[in-house]
Amino acid sequence: MKFRHLSQFEKELWKCGRCAYCVDEEICPSYRLIGFESGAAKGRILIARALLNNKLNFSSDLVENLNLCFMCGACKERCKTAAKIDTVKIFLAMRKEAIDLGLYPEKLLPRYEKLKQSGNPFGLPKDERGSWAEEFSLPSKGETLYFVGCYESYVHSNIPEAFIKILEKAGITPAYLGSDEPCCGHLLIWEGRLEDAKEYAKQGIEVIERSGAKRVVFSCPACYTAFKVEYPEILGIKPSFEMLHATEFLANLIEQGKIKPEKEIKERVTYHDPCSLGRHSEVYDAPRKILRSIPGLEVNEMERNGRFSFCCGSGSGAITPILYEDFSKKIGKLRLEEAKDVADVIVTECPQCLSQFRLVKSEYGVNVELKSLITLLAQALGIDVA
C-alpha cells in the first residue's frame, strides 16, 4: 500500500473540492501570508489526492508547504459545515509519510536530540524540572495529580506556582511527580514522529497510574490535548484516570464556592483561545467563567474568538516558529493587533502562546500587556505572583 498513513483517508479526500470555505485569510494564518490556494486547506487536500493518485511525489518543497501549516484546526471548523473532513488528521498523516521517506526538516533535529537526551525540548537538566515546587513539599502520590509539562516547568514557572497557591486557598494539596514527570511527547506527534511519540505516551500513562491518581489536572494545553485526545488515537487505549484542564478545575472550584475572587482588578482584557485548548480539546467556556468571576474586569471578545480564534503564530507542535520564524512572528503580530483594538491586556492559558506573544511584542512593540489566566485569578484572590 502506497503511503500507509495517508491511504486511510482516501475516501475522505474525495469529498473536498466543491467549496472554498477554508480559502479565507481571516481563518487560515498560512493562507493569509502565502496568498495562494496551495497554502490553504483545500490546496493541501488536493496535493494529498494527487500523491495517492501517483500524479505527484513527495519532495522537499512539498514538505515545506506542509510545515508552513500551523495545524491550528480553523479549516477543520469551517469544514464541519461543509464536507466534514478532518483536515488536521490528513495533514498530520502527510507529515508522517514525509518522516517515513526521510524528509524530516534538519532544523527540527536539535530540538529532537534535546528531548531524547534531557527529557525536555530545551535540553535543560532533568533534576531542575521541579525546582519551582521546592517551597511547597508536594506529595508524589495522591488522588489528584498536577501534571505541569515542560514549558511551564522550565519557562513559565510562575504559572504552576500560582496554581498551587490557588489550590492552597481551596484546601487542596495535589500530588506532583517532580523530576519523574516525563515530557508528554506532543511535539513529536505534530512533527510526525509517531513511533517516538508512542513511547512517551506509554511512559506518561504508566507513571501516572503508578502514582495512584484518579484525576490529573493539566495547566499546559498541549499536555492536556496529548493525554486526552492524542494518546487514545495513537495507542488505541484511553487512560484510566479523569483528565481536566486547570481552567476547568478552577472554574469548578469557583462554582462550588471553594475559592472566591474578591480583589477588584480594573482592566480591559480579552481572551485568546489557544488552538490546543480550544479547537483541539474543545475547552471554551471554563476560561471565560473564570474571567467573569473576577470583579472589576471589563472583558471584550476579539472578532475572531472561540471556534474561530486566530492562531498566535506558534501553532500545534511549535514547528513553524523554528522553521519559518519571520512568517510565524507576522501571524503573532496580527493577533496582538487584533487584541489591542478591544483591550489593554490579552489573557490566555497556554505557555506556547505566551512565549510567542512575548517574542512578537519585543520584535514589533505592539502596546498590549500579556497575562496568564491562572496568574490573573491568583491576583484576584490576593495572592502575590511573579
Would you mind describing this structure in some detail?
This protein is α/β, with parallel strands linked by helices and 386 residues long. It has three domains: 7-100, no CATH class; 108-253, Rossmann fold, CATH 3.40.50; 261-380, Rossmann fold. Helix content is 46%, strand content 7%. It contains 18 helices and seven strands. It has a four-stranded parallel beta sheet, with helices on both faces. Helix 3 packs across helix 6 and helix 11 crosses helix 12 (221-235). The longest helix is centred in the middle third of the chain and has 17 residues, at 194-210. The protein is globular and about 60 Å long. The model has no long low-confidence stretch (mean pLDDT 93).
Task: Please give a quick description of this structure.
The protein contains 18 helices and 7 strands. The protein has 386 residues and is an alpha/beta fold. It folds into 3 domains: 7-100, no CATH class; 108-253, Rossmann fold (3-Layer(aba) Sandwich); 261-380, Rossmann fold.
